[in-house]
Amino acid sequence: MDPYIKEKAQKIKEKTEGDICNHCLGRKFSNDLEGPGNPLRGMKVREIMSQEGEEFNSINPCVICGDLFQKLEIAADEVENKIKSLDLEYFSFLVGSKVDSELIKKDEELNNCLNLDVESIKREINRELGKILEERLNTEVDFDNPQIVINADFRQEALKIRIQINPLFLEGRYRKLIRGIPQTKWPCRKCRGKGCEGCNFTGKMYLETVEELISEPAHKMSHSKESKFHGAGREDIDVRMLGTGRPFVLEIKEPHRRVLDLDILQKEINETNAGKVEVLDLKYSVRSRKAEIKTSSPDTYKIYQALVELKDEIKEDDLKSLKTLTLIKQRTPIRVSHRRADKIRKREVMDIQYEIIDSKTIKLIIKGQGGLYIKELISGDEERTQPNVSQVLGTHAICTELDVLEVGI
Q1: What number of CA atoms fall less than 13 Å from residue 198's CA on the CB side?
Q2: Which terminus of the chain has a smaller tally of CB atoms within 10 A, N or C?
């Protein structure tokens, strides 16, 4: 017999007076004995000690866990009932637990006394409950991206089970075909979303948003009630999003259905919102895409079409000076200064094309780095943007209509 194992077992018996279950006993030998599993290790230690004439034969509850491991099958019953009542569709899960702090303290005290570096009792509880549920639910544990998280609270006599339903992510591009619709919900300025006469008790500044027009059919199909819209930047409310569309991720919160027919969903969104909003290339996505598309860094680009009215008449030769617009220095525009830091940003005009509509109206196609303010590039924004269209043409220019044609990320 290994003298180290015998000595450790004797110390554990002394500290616990033999009142220790196979789970908690075996856990202390996880680095010394082969498994599989701590209960089998615990049984081996008992057999070894029995051969030496020393028994772990107490009939009292385990002084470490209070025989908590015997409650795991009951916990699994509760989990199954909870999932059934919620009518959930899922294909992976993870287990978490809450146990009395005194229990954790006792386990750590024994580890410290024996100078052990072994698995914590909470980790074993989670793993063992997970093994039971894998078999019962016919579903695998996923440590990285679980679709549901099962939380078992063992701190009170009455076991509590909570199911955390993780979000479902969809990705695509949207086209906004009319002006006057914001991308996301704007709470009423008067009541701050509570509802008042000014907003007709809707709590919103605008009745329709791109976010709501896309998300409502998705809520219906996924049996969810809430979502969050993540766009690759945003266009002003009076700007259309045309061309190839703007990338977005829809984060559907607490979906009870995860297998969605995305072709049917995209068709329903487009038919319901015909002439207003259209979705392209709808597909499943992942959490990390939220951060990847939500950027207006200089590494991205956008292509705009702007209808521009001029104070004075111009000729086609006058427009050649627009090609001098390359490196632009923009101080935070007046119209967004209340919510953006006041600083000067350097952005590049990558390309600019022009067309005369009449003697005082031109159309511009501008490709610019992400974060370039186009309306201010045209007007000059009281000289906060340098150089600008008004400046190089020698006449005041104002953007009367603006469309986004392409968003590159």
Answers
A1: 11
A2: N
Strand segments, DSSP code E, in 232-374 are 239-253, 277-284, 301-310, 327-331, 344-358, 361-369
Q: Using CA atoms, how far apart are residues 67 and 367, in angstroms rounded to an integer? A: 68
DSSP assignments along 170-233, one per residue: EEEEEEE-SSS--SS--B-TTTTTS--GGGTTSSBSSS--HHHHHHHHHHHHHT-SEEEEEESS
Of residues 138, 139, 16, 22, the one with CA closest to residue 69? 22
**Considering its fold, how many domains does the chain have in total?**
4
Report the alpha-carbon distance of residue 304 to residue 366 in Å, rounded.
Answer: 5
Residue 351's CATH number = 3.30.70.3190
Query: Residues near 158 by Cβ (< 8 Å), separated by ≥ 6?
Result: none
Same domain, 155 and 172: no
358 CB contacts (<8 Å, ≥6 apart)? none
E strand or H helix at 161: strand 160-165
Q: What is the pLDDT of residues 67-125, one digit of tens each?
A: 999 999 999 999 999 999 999 999 999 999 999 999 999 999 999 998 988 999 999 99
Extract the tokens encoding 41.
């290790």
DSSP category for residue 363: E
CATH no. for residue 99?
A: 3.30.2130.30
Sign of CA dihedral 204, 210, 214, 215: negative
Q: Using one digit for the tens of pLDDT, what is the confidence trace for 385-397?
A: 999 999 999 999 9
pTM of the model: 0.86
What letter represents residue 301's amino acid? Y
Residue 270 CA to residue 99 CA, distance in Å, equals: 50
Give the position of tokens 């101080």.
331
